[in-house]
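Form 12-C: Joint structure prediction
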Amino acid sequence: MIELKGVSRRFGEVLAVNAISLVVETGEVCVLVGSSGCGKSTTLRMINRLLPSTAGEILVDGKNVCDTDLQTLRLNMGYVIQGTGLFPHWTVARNIGLVPGLLKWPEARIRERVDELLQLLGLDQEGFVDKYPHQLSGGQAQRVGVARALAADPNILLMDEPFGALDAITRETLQNEMLRIKQQLGKTTVFVTHDIDEALRLADRIAVMDQGRLIQYDAPEAILRRPASLFVETLVGSQDRGLKMTGLQRVGDAMQRHLHPRPRDLDKPGVREHETLRQALSLMLWQGTESLPVMDEDGAEIGIISRAQIWAGGH
Amino acid sequence: MAIWRAPLTWLVILLASAGLMPDLMPVLFPGQASLVYQRDSFLWLLQHHVMLVAASASVGTLLAIAGGIMVTRPWGRDFLPLVSQIASIGQTVPPVAVLALAVPVLGFGDGPTVMALLLYGLLPVLRNTLAGLDSIPAAVTEAARGMGMSSAQVLIKTELPLAGRVILAGIRTSVTINIATAAIGSTIGARTLGDPVIAGLVNGNTAYVLEGAVLIGLLAITTDSLFEALERFWARRFSATPGTV
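Section 2 - Result
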């Protein structure tokens, strides 16, 4: 659990972060979102004390970060940044093994852990560990960056616009990966982005910031339904709010479930239960149908989703 | 192993030339009197020359790298503009002037020569240390600190390996210049390969000048190729991208 209590940061005359208070529960993903210069990165960097706070206190699991030894604090927080910050003179394996190495794990255990992480992030190709960062694509490098942050199994993950420099397709793949990792590992995460769609996808709770102030701190659905101010409303885009809402809900929660799974009719297009209502809606529009069959992971038809149910879910 | 071939070859040529020079000159120019510089053996002069340069270069390099590191730490950053200006201005002073200035302050002999070489050799190393440390992407050091490395670990594990090649290039410049400058040290009483050159100039004996000059040249080439090999070794060891830092 991370608690910020009235945290401020001043750069000379400018108050970059102005008395922010928020709580990130254990296992939750908190996304700080806002335009550039709103103080979101500054807030993040105060949590691992890359920047000292000017006022207020930050507690991690009830302990003030200023009372914790700096190295100990940071070794227990995975840190991912936009430019990846991979060491160009180290191989992938050494880069990922950085923190375990600092914690003096035995060699064999580090190697084992590196393999485990490469598997987790889908990077377990032959010879990948011996590559150097300049030999990787942007998406691969950022995956290695995430693997490095997870290496010593930290309690907390800090991510500063990790996918900001990637192309749209790679970014989406990595966002999906994040969601999967979140389900698998359940790390308490603070994630900074300027992309509201990214925030809506990944967050359990979104903190909207503007000019150093925390404007709203709420679940994604609440941010969409009840924006606290005109700024938040503009940020989430008042035009396609309805569509964004359908992007938050799973087909599995809105569908009508069959009593017994049925074998799938292969000719009819369908959606999977973990996909969003937005995907279902898009497919319906494209196919010109009123309803779609819903499949589980094994491909059996377990229910049906209709336009009416999407309508009901969107309200 | 292949990268060490060139410096080794040059070293053999240098030692052979120094050793065989007294026998070689009469063969090349038969019938000439007082053809070979006799006061000291060339091997002894070479040895002394190398010692003067090595002493000044090792101390100078350590000082310059330490200085470069200090002014790039958070607590020393205030001195960065001053130090980097001195490093640049110092480069505009010609090496001979350094020796000329050293005499009134330090007197004659080996000691003043070493001091003068040391001071002059500081600057290229210092300048390259600053440039090398400056060229490291901010994201790398930021990530290193954020992952929990101590300042010393950031320096030793990331900054120095990444800046190493540029620093080595600075040491290479510094040492090469100092091999030439040390020869001029003979004018203020140091015992170097410059001795036969000076003696030759004073007595109008071109053979002496040639002997000294050839050996100094060979020494410079040997050292330069040694550093080139070192730089390539460093690049191979600490970076997968030769040519970039």
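Section 3 - Comments
The domain at 251-313 of chain A is CATH 3.10.580.10 (CBS-domain). Chain A has two domains: 2-237, 251-313.
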